[in-house]
Please model this.
Amino acid sequence: MKIVRSFLLVVFSLAATVAAPAGAFELLRSTGNTCSADSNLSWSPNRVTIDTTDLGESRRGLGEEAVDEWRQVLGTRLQLVSGSGQPCARDGVTTMAFTDVDCMGNPFAGDTLAITVTSWSGNRITDADVSFNPAVRLSNASFRQVAMHEIGHVIGLDHSNACGDSGAGTLMNSRLVEALDAPQQDDIAGARFVYGGGGEVGVPEGANGCAVVPPTRASGTWLLAIAAALALLAARRIAAPARLTLRNVSSQARRLR
Model:
């Protein structure tokens, strides 16, 4: 079993001025290199079980709302169902929980909000768990937005600005410069690109060269579109955890409360 361990630092802030939407969705890849042409990761069969119990009474409802926003986007393309699992257990159930360390066993940096760790085999996601830092206080709206961002990683999206685009105006931007209450057009395009929707052929408008043609359905199974990924079918990897932090990025930015 091979393990890839690295971190993506995400600056999460509000700016005084809102940038015009400009970005292109990016996808988690089977080699861990977002900006490659390698096959993207997805859940197969198209079903993810999510457990929000460990968020506690005060936050669980917000976690459910975050999941429901993606549920409305995906419909039957990817079923997001409630279930029971253990935090960081790699049991095939996505848990959202406040934990003292992330799912790699590392302490949170002081300003880290949340970390998502994804496990996969070949191009199939086998587990993804979200850890929230209990030491960081967020408003309900901010927590809900962070939870939506993390669910985006769970379903296979990476940061929209990971490969050179600004990613402005998207939920999956690593530097969020506006408050968002739902996935935006670019985020939706990425999710539907991975799980189908409308019969698009090739790369949808708004995507850049980092996106690849999604798997096609045959015999009830999502098949690899890139032959090179076949060599990875026996390997089980862990994706680079996506980390959210609170940090000022300019004189205009302010910390979320």
User: Anything to note?
Assistant: The first strand starts at residue 8 and ends at 12. Residues 8-245 form a domain with the Collagenase (Catalytic Domain) fold (CATH 3.40.390.10).
